[in-house]
Amino acid sequence: MKKRLICLILLAATLLTMCQPVFAAGIGREPAPVFKSDLKDTLRAEKIALLTESLIRSEDAKIRISAIRRLQDFAGNEYTLIECEPTGYYILHNASGRYAEYSSETVSPYRDVSGDLYYGGPTYYFEANGASYTDVIEKTTLALEAAEQRQELVKYCGELNESLMGVKQTDVTTYLWDDTVSVNGSAFANLSFGGEEDIQATSDVTTYAYCPNFFMNTTGAAVGYYAEGKKGFCGYVAANLILRYWHYRGKIKLPSYFTSTYAINTKALTKELIAIGKQKGYGNGLVACQVKEIIKAFCNKYRLSLHAGYDLLSIGVKKQIVTYRRPVIIGGYFPGAGGPHYVIAYGFRQKRAPGIYWDFYICHYGWTYEGYEKVNVNVAAITIGDNVKCYP
Fold first, then answer.
1. Among the four residues 10, 69, 168, 340, which has the most C-beta atoms within 10 Å?
2. ∠ CA(143), CA(145), CA(151), 5° rounding?
3. DSSP string for 85-139
4. Where does the chain have alpha helices with state H?
5. pTM score of the predicted model
6. Which residues pair with 78 in a beta bridge?
7. CA 107 to chain CA centroid, nearest Å
8. Does the CA dihedral 153-121-45-39 come out positive or negative?
9. Is 369 left (phi over 0), alpha (psi -120 to 50) or beta?
10. Chunked in runs of 10, what are the mean pLDDT values of the chain (392 residues)?
């Protein structure tokens, strides 16, 4: 009898050990795998995981949450980073209940970073190193010794925070931050679709530029990414992608010495565009009007019929994608980063799922890292300084 009692006690202890901690058990699903969390509040981590799982499930992504980590911007506003395996990351803006950006297809930009994490909006990911901050992608240093520089950065982050607060979803923030609300009870099941209470099913409408597979399949060396030391040439890379897109569509015919496998591997087109930029006195960091001039000069040199124009802010971006089905080069500005970072927006997405009600641009970040060819960026989370439109 005594031996049997000991066995029962050991069995109970084993079961308890197996069940702790289990986070984010979705409604009607098996419990999610255990994940690491640096949030002190376990309840908060469970709720964030459950909300993120609803988004993962709505896309039928074959990934699982592996870690939940704390993020902040340079003005003290808080975000949460959700990392997944084998790929995937989600960045949640805590105060608005909105995902600023996410991708189920690439690894987290912070995956191998162990220090304090800072977020400056899409494409701007930093790790604190004393009084300076390291861009975890470009490996450049952002120094903020000057008070004026820091004030500009704080102002930028405040504007980004304000933009996201403009699309705040109250039922999500109540679910996440109200301790009286249970993890997977009716509050989660009844999360609204932004006030449209009659909508019962998940809705996901995406409009792509024609032939989006060009961007989805352009990865690694094919991106044409080029750098000298720690200086990237994102505006030139974006121009490269746009020119090759229209070549792919058959609207222009690039010379073979820009399209052969050897040319692509040696970044021949990007280097030619940089040479044109240098002839005009441009540096590695461009603004939209300079990107436009480089594309026009290239087309004139090689007798290609392609229109290039630019606008400030986000003027005309959505219309180009949704109405005309064309990709657009968009530039996001981050103080102290040496100028805007240019990416290609080639899709526009309206997402409706539990806790999700907003619009995204689908972007190619112009990086060689696999997965960054398809990143969902919340329209409210990207400060578009200018944009370049290019078409036959």
1. 340
2. 95
3. ESS-EEEEETTTTEEEEEESSS--TTTT--S-EEE-STT-EEEEETTEEEETTT-
4. 2-19, 42-58, 147-165, 170-177, 186-189, 213-216, 234-248, 261-265, 268-279, 288-301, 317-322
5. 0.85
6. 72
7. 11
8. negative
9. beta
10. 41 38 39 71 90 87 96 96 96 95 94 92 90 86 71 90 92 90 76 44 81 94 79 89 97 95 91 96 92 98 96 92 97 73 94 71 90 92 90 96
The number of angstroms, rounded, from the C-alpha of 189 to the middle of its chain's C-alpha atoms is 27
Tokens coding 220: 């690694």
DSSP code at position 31: P
Question: Where do we find the tokens 């000057």?
Answer: 146
What pLDDT is stored for residue 23 in this prediction?
40
Among the listed residues 215, 222, 204, 225, the one whose alpha carbon sits nearest the alpha carbon of residue 327: 215
Q: Which long-range CB contacts under 8 A does 248-257 form with residues at least 24 apart?
A: 248/211, 248/214, 249/210, 249/211, 249/214, 251/306, 251/392, 252/299, 252/304, 252/305, 252/306, 252/392, 253/304, 254/302, 254/304, 255/302
72 neighbors 157 (Cβ within 8 angstroms): no
